[in-house]
Amino acid sequence: MKTLIIVIHPNLNDSVINKRWVNELIKYPDKYTVHNIYQMYPDGIINVEKEQKLIEQHDSIILQFPLYWFNCPPLLKKWLDEVFTYGWAYGSNSGHKLKDRKFALAVSAGIKEEDFKPEGRYHHSLQEILLPFEITAKYVGANYLPFYSFYGAEFKVSEEELEKNTNGYIDYLQSF
């Protein structure tokens, strides 16, 4: 089965990192389904049944987004709240549609990696900041995998650095 890449970026056309990642992903339509929810739902009204069926057609799910105020973009939170429903994503006797699916994150952070170290500016790692996603995956029985990241998106990114990271992202996805 293919990997579902759920892209959550409110300004993808203005993005450097996420846009480059998407442009690379679409070169592999046999491996990846790229699903841009800001493009799909500009009004914020999510078709829950359609989203659930799309997930069911894939064995791996990647949430790809830029870090916003040390969290995810607001439409991702809404999407999770509405799509991961009781009786579908979790529940005592039913709701196991995400069980054993591979679940991971691809995150771009505006600040530099050293700022996410215990001795850095924010004293918390990106792994710590993303912990709610790991706990959510475990709660629904998904197989949470280590995240992929790009640090320093707010700064001038060289073409070489961008290409190296993009190739690393594809390698990361192929390791599934």
Task: Label this structure with key terms.
176 residues; alpha/beta; Rossmann fold; 6-stranded parallel β-sheet; 7 helices; 35% helix; globular; electron transfer activity; NAD(P)H dehydrogenase (quinone) activity; Flavodoxin_fold; Flavoprotein-like_sf
Descriptive report:
It is globular and about 50 Å long. Strands 1, 2, 3, 4, 5 and 6 form a 6-stranded parallel sheet that branches. Strand 3, helix 4 and strand 4 (102-109) form a beta-alpha-beta unit. The mean pLDDT is 94. It has 176 residues and is an alpha/beta fold. The chain has one domain (3-175): Flavodoxin domain (Rossmann fold), CATH 3.40.50. It is 35% helix and 18% strand. The protein has helices at 17-25, 37-40, 48-56, 74-83, 126-129, 131-139, 159-174, and strands at residues 3-7, 32-36, 60-66, 102-109, 143-144, 148-151. It is built from 7 helices and 6 strands.
Brief account:
With 176 residues, this protein is of the alpha/beta class. Helices cover 35% and strands 18% of the residues. The protein has helices spanning 17-25, 37-40, 48-56, 74-83, 126-129, 131-139, 159-174, and strands spanning 3-7, 32-36, 60-66, 102-109, 143-144, 148-151.
Q: What is the CATH homologous superfamily assignment?
A: Flavodoxin domain
CATH class: Alpha Beta
Structural class: alpha/beta
Helix/strand order, N-terminal first: EHEHHEHEHHEEH
- How helix-rich are the residues, as a percent range? 25-40%
CATH topology: Rossmann fold
Determine the mean pLDDT: 94
Coarse shape: globular
Number of beta-strand segments? 6
User: In whole angstroms, how far apart are the ends?
Assistant: 11 Å
